[in-house]
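Title: Comparing notes on inverse folding

I've been comparing how different people in this forum approach sequence design from structure. To keep things fair, I'm posting one structure and asking everyone to reply with a full sequence. Here's the target:
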């Protein structure tokens, strides 16, 4: 059993491994295929950060057992059905091709008791939410009548003049207005 560089920056553990996969909404996150040159079902691809990826499954692994049941002689369809049926949690025994070839060269049988029990990695944290820019539009401000300072003075003077006319009369108001 050896280890090599894996996805996600950690070391990928190779050898005979017992993986625990808990089905997510999008499934387990791997595809398998029948290898015509070798007996069994092999992992074709693994979605990054999927349940299978976090559990330690590697591209090229051969599926040996599903929930303790030997699947080495099963068809592709039979293995898929065993993985899909039953509980949401699956115990899948896998072996990489290199380790399998080494064992065959020594005439060793695959013994599930020799498997490395893998502990799934934690999923990566979600990406940070983008910082929302404050709304620079004036949509949230009430409509204001913006006038120049000169227009405001004239408005005030006009109101004062109207008040003076009401209280003093026209002639006196004109005289008082001119004194401003």
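Reply #1:
Here's my take.
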């Amino acid at each position: 059993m050896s280890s090599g560089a894996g996805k996600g920056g950690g070391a990928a553990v190779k050898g005979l491994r017992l993986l625990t996969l808990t089905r997510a909404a999008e499934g387990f996150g791997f595809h398998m295929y029948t290898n015509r040159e070798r007996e069994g079902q092999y992992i074709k691809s693994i979605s990054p950060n999927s349940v299978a990826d976090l559990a330690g499954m590697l591209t090229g692994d051969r599926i040996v057992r599903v929930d303790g049941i030997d699947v080495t002689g099963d068809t592709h369809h039979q293995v898929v059905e065993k993985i899909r049926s039953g509980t949401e949690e699956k115990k899948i025994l896998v072996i990489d091709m290199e380790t399998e070839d080494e064992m065959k060269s020594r005439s060793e049988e695959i013994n599930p008791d020799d498997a490395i029990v893998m502990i799934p990695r934690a999923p990566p944290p979600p990406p940070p939410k983008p910082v929302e820019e404050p709304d620079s539009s004036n949509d949230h401000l009430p409509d204001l009548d913006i006038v120049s300072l000169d227009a405001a003075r004239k408005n005030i003077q006009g109101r004062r003049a109207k008040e003076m006319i009401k209280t003093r009369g026209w002639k006196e108001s004109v005289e008082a207005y001119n004194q401003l």
